[in-house]
Here is the input.
Amino acid sequence: MYGSIFSMKVKNGHEEQLLSLFNSYNESRPDGAVAWFVLNADEKDEWIGVSVFTSKEAYVANANLPEQHDNFVQMMEHLESEPQWTDGEYVISET
Here is the structure.
């Protein structure tokens, strides 16, 4: 499995709008997507996200979709700066 862990600094007062945007993504699952999570960190002023795909190829194919760019532009309206991304292969998982 492959994916990304990312941190986002949400603009003050934009939490509900960003949640609504993220919830709209749940209407259709990208090819190869396994799961994604967003955590509102207790001790940090940021949200942490995790995305999981079946493979790097599925992850990259999703990232290159034009609608992903549109989603990113909409997301940036609610963030102070671009998210910090760490992409890579998950070497162990348990569900």
